[in-house]
Specification:
14 helices; alpha/beta; 2 domains; single chain; 392 residues
């Protein structure tokens, strides 16, 4: 197969849930012997690079004077990027380099391509949609938001096949867009794990210090449950002073860090570390060293970040919402807590911090779950089956 996958995010220039998914899928498909092209955004220049066998086409949009004023009312950048992506796909198709295309629903990247006459079949992978993000943020919906939601919906409906990662997300999207849920294929996400390939048992590592380490990795925003975590931390540290928290992820103008410091002073500065962005190699070490991984999200269509911890045999705590319960089996490979409930989170954190045997059991089961259900190879194999069905 000759496959084109689009994602505005793609490592190493930008990393997010969709970018991570596309990276793992692209390499999974490539390892299975398929030709894979990825179209992604560029920070500084337009170029074509090889990521091992995956060919990455980086697009750079020219700046438009006073575009920021238009963006207040209309998602101009998204629309222009969609046009640029369509142009690149046409170039690849004329050279007979692709015969199937996959877009994400987020950002309506496939809108322009889908609105025009086309010969290539199109798959859209459903991630958290814009309307869900607006609802969770609690902000008033703007005209720009309504247009963005309309663009995403239009692209979704125009596609030839829809794929999502969990049954919960499938039901939500189908209900919102008035679609038949059975028409949406469910393929769980997966991540590469070359380091641990062919190992049936993974020995759980942790920090060599006598401190217990709790790790959070995600953007510092409401949807990811960072507010709930920060409100629980002081009580955790009062009860378990030998605990350290490592918080990794972008924090716009350090708002969350500054808020936490203003509320608690500097008394926890040696125990709560706001690290911002860290590179992949450093991040992997934090996963290895932690004792507990926690992201108490208010909503996730899947929860890819939990797999990153599970592949290292770590017990995970997540929000009991969206598709997360299809990744975390409460009491089996991790713990689910009620979203926006700092008391429930506090109780779960203390339970795991005080019980080493429970941490080890959940961690071992987490690695087993990952190996059985959530590897990139398994995701790629199921995706190939779906692509083949559509092409035939």
């Amino acid at each position: 197969m000759k496959i084109c996958i689009t994602s505005k995010q793609y490592p190493p220039e930008s990393i997010g849930g969709i970018g991570t998914y596309v990276y793992n899928l692209a390499h999974g498909l490539s390892s299975a012997g398929h030709d894979v092209h990825v179209i992604a955004a560029s920070i500084d220049r337009e170029c074509e690079v090889f990521d091992r066998k995956v060919i990455v086409h980086r697009l750079k949009l020219k700046k438009i004077r006073l575009a920021w004023r238009i963006e207040k009312f209309f998602p101009l950048e998204n629309f222009r990027y969609s046009m640029a992506v369509a142009k690149k796909i046409y170039e690849l198709s004329l050279k007979k380099l692709v015969n199937i295309v996959e877009f994400p629903n987020w950002g309506a990247e496939g809108f322009w391509f889908l609105m025009r006459k086309r010969k290539l079949p199109v798959v859209i992978r459903l991630h958290t949609p814009h309307f869900e993000s607006v609802m969770i943020s609690g902000k008033k919906e703007t005209l720009r938001d309504r247009i963005m939601c309309w663009l995403e919906k239009k692209a979704v409906i125009k596609s030839d096949l829809l794929v999502c990662s969990t049954f919960a997300h499938r039901e939500m999207i189908a209900g919102k867009y008035n679609l038949d849920p059975k028409a949406i294929k469910v393929i769980p996400l997966g991540i590469m794990n070359s380091e641990l390939d062919n190992k049936d048992i993974y020995s759980v590592e942790s920090s060599s210090t006598d401190k217990l380490r709790v790790l959070y990795v995600s953007r510092l925003e409401k949807r990811k449950g960072i507010d709930t975590l920060l409100s629980a931390i002081p009580q955790v540290l009062e009860s378990m002073p030998n605990t350290e928290f490592f918080i990794i992820g972008s924090d716009y103008k350090q708002k969350k860090k500054n808020l936490f410091t203003s509320q608690t002073g500097n008394i926890y500065s040696s125990q709560v570390h706001f690290l911002g962005y860290v590179d992949n190699k450093e991040l992997e070490q934090y996963y290895r060293d932690c004792d507990i991984f926690v992201v108490p999200s208010v909503y996730e269509s899947f929860g890819l970040v939990y797999l990153e911890a599970m592949k290292y045999g770590k017990p995970v705590i997540g929000g009991n919402a969206g598709g997360i319960p299809e990744v975390i089996n409460d009491g089996e490979n991790g713990v689910l807590v009620k979203p926006d409930d700092s008391k429930a989170l506090l109780s779960s954190l203390l339970l795991l911090l005080k019980d080493k045997k429970l941490r080890e059991r959940l961690g071992q089961n987490a690695f087993k779950s990952f190996n059985e259900k959530f590897t990139a190879k398994k995701m790629a194999r199921k995706t190939i089956d779906v692509y083949s069905e559509l092409l035939n």
